[in-house]
Amino acid sequence: MDAVIILQAGVATGTVLLFATLGGIFSERAGVMQLGIEGMMLLGAMAAFSVTVATGNPWLGLLVAMLAAGLLSQIHAFITITLGADQVVSGLSLTFVGTGIALVFGEQLSKAGVISLIPRYTVPFLSQIPFIGTIFFTDHSVLVYLGYLLVPLASYYIYHTRPGMHLRAVGEQPSAADSLGINVYRTRYIYVFICGLFSGLAGGTISLAISPGWFSELTTSGQGWIAVGLIIFSQWDPTRALVGAYAFGALRRLVLDIQGPTILFGMRNPFYYNPYWGFFLMMLPYAFTIIVLVIGSYSAMRRRLGAPAALGIPYIRGERGV
Amino acid sequence: MTDLAPVKSNNRFPFQIRFEPRLGELKWWQSLLISLIALIVSLLVGALLLSVVGGNPWKAYSHIAKASFGDIGVFSDTMVKAIPLILIGLACSVAFRMKLWNIGAEGQFFLGAFGASIVVLIPIVPDGSPAWVYISVMALFAMVFGALWGFLPGYLKARFNVNEVISTLMMNYIAVAWNNFFIYAVWSEGGFQMSKMFPRAAWLPRLTDFSKQIPELRGLTTHAGLIFALIMVVVVWFLLSRSRWGYEIRLIGDNPKAANYAGIQIKKNVILVMMLSGGLAGLAGMSEISGVVHRLQGAISPGYGFTGIIVAWLAKLNPYLVVIVSILFGGLILAGREIQPSGIPKLIQGIILVSLIASDYLVRNRVRIIRRTED
Amino acid sequence: MTNNSDQPTEMQADTVVSMQGIVKQFPGVLANDRVTFTLKRGEIHALLGENGAGKSTLMNILTGLYKPDNGMITVQGKRVVFSSPNQAIAHGIGMVHQHFMLVPTQTVTENILLGLNEPRFRLNLSKYNAIVKDLGERMGLPIDPTAHIWQLSVGEQQRVELLKILYRGAEVLILDEPTAVLAPQEIEAFFCTLRKMTSQGKSIIFISHKLNEVLQIADRVTVMRRGRVTAEGVNPTGLSIKDLAKLMVGREITFDVTKEDVTPGEVVLSIEDLVCENDKGLPALRGVNMNIRHGEIVGLAGVAGNGQRELAEVITGLRKSTRGKITIHDRDVTHTDPRNHIRHGISHIPEDRHHTGTAPNLSLTDNVIMKSYTHAPISKGWTINQVAADRYATDLRSAYNILSPTIKTPVRLLSGGNLQRVILAREISTQPALMVAMQPTRGLDVGAIEGVQKLLLLQREAGAGILLVSEELDELLALSDRIYVIFEGRIVGEVMDKDIDRIGFLMCGTSPDKNEAMGEKND
């Protein structure tokens, strides 16, 4: 068990969470809660895998995954933005529908053989840096590098561009944005769609790069929900999302790897000799999500800041008594 | 800049559909009708999707109907599936009334099953105890363990404002791993992933157990968990609509600020309601263990915890309607096992929930068709 | 009405805006009924009317927020149809809403740049900060462009709102009740700023229901009542307050409130050195001392946002104090929960009827028993005696003249005045020892205001102590036996003789007689 290898694998696994969390940040910054990420991810994973099986082109698979999840997200958009329904229940129902569609269409996929995956790449020079080079720049899927790019881009977009400013305004004070001619409804539709794209990307990243294959519901095994937790932990900030996602990725890896060696820290590895203790290890990522949530929520409470003010509240223009 | 042309009547269609906020209340039959329409629409959409993947929707639907309500035998099996749904539907109704999104009924169900099992497997009550001791202690333990599983997210919500949707969900995964540990490592029977069979005294009596006296009951699997469920329906109804506590829950659910202003302790109630909700879901776990499988094992839930959410929603959080809806969904779950592809029942459930929340728009707004008068 | 009338109409050349025959129907209400309104260049045109008369609707139509069902709007002689506020502002029409439309977590500059096409993509904030600062100084509206909105006072926020529309090149400024957030002395300065703007060629629509202000500032007045115009563009010179009031309300109204003589009894509430924080964790109260006796109405005057809301919340137990002591009838209730305050006979008419005072989707019955469901006869052991609750609701409904179809009707379907009566009925029926009334008449029409004031006076006669928090000075003067003035979380003075000038000075944080202010501020 090598810390560097675990961290390296953690970055890879964490990339899935990172994509999903970034998508959620965009949607929630616009004021639409996203509890449908799990369903959209599963749909994305299925779409990516099945298209790649059919065409042999993983990039096409990824594209279809994003579009499929993006399309699915629009159901949530319509119900919550246009119809003004409860965002919690709508998000849940989205997960049901996404999971259902994925299972129905993915019925035969588990029998599919080897497929071509998203290529891997080692960055010259950078990979020579001790530790860091191995962890971040050696033999990673191209998508992991995409993650490195997306975080600063998302950060810059949200805080330093005009559309980013509009996004923040729509999630904080939609009536103010509306009064200045920003189309609140359209903005929300767009960012819910973007969240769909990101969730689809996250799903495709699982089935085409990080842990390739289609294992029905176990493909995502709740990572979409962990991402929802990370959104809150991140305080809707892409950089904090990156930290959280990679930490979780490493944790997930650790849980798998810790059972391997016979000797752990110079002692007999209890998890090797008692394989059933692995069930407690399996609880760890979920328990940690709760702990991370406590930290995120508590700090938000203390700083009296945090969630976008209009998060979860449908915007209805022109209510009487303006 | 934009050139603002004078008003043009570019709509040739002489009528216009307009949605306006409803100013009055809905009659009970109106809201029932809206729910029914939503149900029918979702079945149609499901049919469409089924035919897309190459299935025959009408065959599938008639199969579901026959395999769940076709004769007294299958109906009895449907009722078996409906029992946990009723209890979990109640659990969700109680929490949702307060706008507490307890998505963790699944985990609370598993912990309830665990709690009921330890009564037999540790054992808590001595071997050879009479049935009434077994059953009542098991029910008590199941509710306590379920309530504990509800307490934690409730406490975190009250104390740190932790989003209960995610915490309850995470607790689901933990609950499954927890049960698995005991099934695999502690109580494994002969290398199988299940505990030993419970003694007969720890079984909830089934209808078939009385076939000696009444031969018609032979083979009918419906068990006494139904009595628990129906008692809980009345208890929950009474709590929600007649008690002071129910009033407080309603007030918090509608406007927490107003509830605080009225001197109601919101945090305490958040924890209590989560515990009640967890306890009801835990009781469902006991009834499944003690009434159906008679041992602790892995696959005891085909997603009852999640279907319960839809049940509660379709029943409009009304305890009595929960019973009816649970029976319908019990049938869907029962017949759904044989439907290919296997994702279909889940998909149909999802579509039903989607169209239900969409249909709420019609509850809040009315449709008016107006003749265009302008220009 | 023909479609191609886009050539300049034969109106005077100096007409900037003309609205003809505007109709707007909301579900259940005809908000604008064939309304006509014109605005000339460089004038201040007051739009006068009660709440709900249709002023805001008309202006929301002019700014493109609502679409009229019928009617024609011309700007600078050209017919226009605005489908969004952006189009209105492109034609030089900008509005400052009564409830500010600002994003609290963003800076002044960001708020001003919202919705504009410039900058295209990258926000070069340092550049725009300089531009905003410069504009503010030029217009007499100085502001720190890097400050976040939530850090600003209400008056400063108003400046941001004005700068927002001026930055967009507004020629027509619509101001909805702009003086509501200002102290009397600040109003003078504000009117000067407005005059300065009109001298630069800007035209101003001044929405108000305050008659004296309208007479003071307006060049012309248009009065609306129940969606219709009752006086169009009249010159206010020669008009009296009574004339305007009659146009506005449709009948003579009395401005005098008849008050019985009541000798105040013993002290109900006393507050010592009270300190608390606001929602942002900033100090809201910095050592408040006050007392209220039985049978008196004590007014609390102050510009909005100086700690009134926090004070009311601390007294009613909704907010925690960080220092100080609150006693009711010599019992210490500091740091206890709202239930304990209710038990000690404190009732509360909250500022925010919809979000704090009522549960909108619950029935009238459920709403009126909020404070009495724990006592017999409504409480019966663990349960609620529904028969008693319904009887209670029926009694209150007729006693307080609440217009609702049934007692089962959800209160969200009630009008503002009826909703306020629901709250009053509930709070008064508990026979409180102390009543904290926040803005009890805000947003009500004249008839309803009289009713509410009468109820408060009756409570005073019944021996209750009343803390009346209001931004309407006239109301405070008419009802109160004495008035405290609050400024930046401190009581800066107590006025017994209804000296409005002195109240005004105190509201601005300056004192006419230095000695007393020094004496009050010893902390």
Which consecutive residue ranges of chain B, at least 5 long each, have pLDDT under 50? 1-10
Largest interface: A-B, 51 and 45 residues
Structural class per helix/strand content of chain B? Answer: mainly alpha
Total helical elements of chain C = 18
Strands ordered across the widest β-sheet of chain C: 6-7-8-3-9-10
Secondary-structure element pattern of chain B, one letter each: EHHHHHHHHHHHHHE
Features:
heterotrimer; A: 322 residues; two-stranded antiparallel ribbon; C: 523 residues; alpha/beta; Rossmann fold; 4 domains; six-stranded mixed β-sheet; globular; disordered N terminus
What does this molecule look like?
The complex is a heterotrimer of chains A (322), B (375) and C (523). Chain A is mainly alpha-helical and 322 residues long. Chain A is 68% helix and 2% strand. Chain A is built from 13 helices and 4 strands. In chain A, β3 (263-264) and β4 (267-268) form a beta hairpin. In chain A, α3 runs antiparallel to α9 (184-210). Chain A is globular, with a radius of gyration of 20 Å. Chain A starts with a helix and ends in a 19-residue tail after the last helix. Chain B has helices spanning 28-52, 57-69, 72-97, 105-121, 131-160, 164-186, 225-242, 244-254, 256-261, 266-293, 304-314, 319-336, 344-364, and strands at 15-21, 365-371. Chain B is globular. Chain C is built from 18 helices and 22 strands. Chain C has a 6-stranded mixed β-sheet with strand order 6-7-8-3-9-10, with helices on both faces. In chain C, α14 (416-429) packs parallel to α15 (446-461). With 523 residues, chain C is of the alpha/beta class. Chain C folds into 4 domains: 1-92 and 171-179 and 202-253, P-loop containing nucleotide triphosphate hydrolases (Rossmann fold), CATH 3.40.50.300; 99-170, no CATH class; 254-345 and 432-523, P-loop containing nucleotide triphosphate hydrolases (Rossmann fold), CATH 3.40.50; 354-431, no CATH class. The chains are: A mainly alpha (322), B mainly alpha (375), C alpha/beta (523). At the A-C interface, α7 and α8 of A face α1, α2 and α3 of C.
Produce the secondary structure layout.
The complex is a heterotrimer of chains A (322), B (375) and C (523).
Chain A (H helix, E strand, L loop, with lengths): L2 H27 L7 H19 L2 H25 L4 H19 L14 E2 L10 H6 L2 E2 H19 L1 H11 L1 H6 L4 H27 L12 H11 L4 H20 L5 E2 L2 E2 L1 H4 L4 H26 L19
Antiparallel strand pairs in A: 1-2, 3-4
Chain B lengths: L14 E7 L6 H25 L4 H13 L2 H26 L7 H17 L9 H30 L3 H23 L38 H18 L1 H11 L1 H6 L4 H28 L10 H11 L4 H18 L7 H21 E7 L4
Antiparallel strand pairs in B: 1-2
Chain C lengths: L14 E12 L2 E12 L3 E6 L5 H8 L7 E6 L2 E3 L4 H6 L2 E4 L11 H6 L11 H14 L15 H14 L4 E5 L7 H16 L3 E6 L2 H7 L2 E6 L2 E7 L6 H9 L17 E11 L5 E11 L3 E5 L6 H8 L5 E8 L2 E2 L5 H6 L2 E4 L3 H5 L6 H5 L10 E2 L2 E2 L1 H14 L16 H14 L4 E5 L7 H16 L3 E5 L3 H7 L2 E6 L2 E6 L4 H8 L6 H7 L3
Parallel strand pairs in C: 3-8, 3-9, 6-7, 7-8, 13-20, 13-21, 16-19, 19-20
Antiparallel strand pairs in C: 1-2, 1-4, 4-5, 9-10, 11-12, 11-14, 14-15, 17-18, 21-22
